[in-house]
Amino acid sequence: MFRVPITYNLTTTQLGCKSFEDRYRITLKDFNEYYGRTLLNYYQDSPAIAVISCFPEYEWKEWLFDKTPQICWKNPDRHIQYMQWLGKQLGYKTLDDWYNITQKDFELHNGSGFLTHFYRSSPSAAVMKCFPENDWKEWLFASAPKNFWKSPDNRLRYMQWLGKQLNFRKYEDWYEITQKLFESHNGGGFLDYFHASPSAAVIATFPEYKWQPERFAYGKKQQKQLYRIIKKIFSKYVIKWDFKHPDMRFIETNQKMELDIFIPSLYLAFEYQGEQHVLPKTIWGGIPALKETQQRDEEKKNACRQHGITLIEVPHSWDGHEDTAIEMLTKLGLKRLEREAESQITRIPQMKA
């Protein structure tokens, strides 16, 4: 019957605890130093259990003690309570914010043992277990659960999701897939399962289609991805692919200049600038070839200005995402340009047929 007064005296008088929160810092060493070691026999040798038992009126968070009693984690409700508390500490507002969680976050918020012993050190496993109401996509976490990609169902789920992100609507669209698109859409681990081969990944995931492997290596894939996005954004306009402008020619060769993507009614063009436009790689002819390419690029830009065409150059560093493309276009004020074109469509002389 003396247990409560003794614990109260220890924590309040000896250790100077003035609030309930102050008692979180009590340790086994404190009990030993102030002759309370025997007292802990009544509380499974746990300072936390001793404090909680003696002050039941307070809503304790067991994980904030120096050592969390294991009995705490045996209750699944405490897992959820800890995760809800952790989310508040990290400033999470929505369930999707949990995709940002890392193992370090658990370590810094007294959850290392919780994560290790109950979720095999997997942040995603803890999140999905505690918040099962969300349609989680494991690949959007910092790392997918161990052995996740060994499951054919998981691989199919990822590819179906990826197809939607890339606006792929038919099987043939997958011929435009690249390693970079996998990597920029959290699919690096998935692709490793197929020895970094995009074509192998597609063929294995969709075996019902009669694939032509040689087609995967063909085409301007990033340019086609950009075209697909532009077509979606400017859906009510006629959009030209690799358009050879009849009134724009290179001085030296007299060849028509080609615009990767062109919207005639808006006098708006897009050029995807691959690495060959900025890097002197040997396979493309080194520095001399780079200088020639850049000279032609400059000539094309001048011609566009002379013909009233707004030319948007998309760098090779573009990740292929639709949202980053939209962000880029928004910064360039293309909504304003579109409105001007609709209200003053004849402001620029029409091109020759």
Helix/strand order, N-terminal first: HHHHHHHHHHHHHEEEHEHH
* Total count of strands: 4
Separation of the first and last Cα atoms: 101 Å
What spatial order of strands do you see in the largest sheet?
1-2-3-4
* CATH topology name of the largest domain: Endonuclease, Chain A
Main β-sheet, in a few words? 4 strands, mixed
Classify the helix fraction into a percent range: 40-55%
Task: Give the second-level CATH assignment, the architecture of the largest domain.
Answer: 3-Layer(aba) Sandwich
Q: How many structural domains?
A: 4
Overall CATH class of the largest domain: Alpha Beta
Number of helices: 16
Quaternary organization: single chain
Poorly predicted spans: 1-8, 344-353
Question: What characteristic shape results from the CA principal axes?
Answer: elongated
| Arithmetic mean pLDDT | 80
- Overall structural class, as computed from helix and strand content, comes to alpha+beta
How would you briefly describe this protein structure?
The chain is built from 16 helices and 4 strands. It has 353 residues and is α+β, with helices and mostly antiparallel strands. It has a 4-stranded mixed sheet, sandwiched between helices.
Topology:
Blueprint: H1 3-14, H2 28-33, H3 47-54, H4 70-73, H5 76-89, H6 103-108, H7 112-119, H8 123-130, H9 152-165, H10 179-184, H11 188-192, H12 198-205, H13 221-233, E1 240-249, E2 256-263, E3 268-273, H14 286-306, E4 310-315, H15 322-331, H16 334-343
Parallel strand pairs: 3-4
Antiparallel strand pairs: 1-2, 2-3
Helix pairs in contact: 1-3
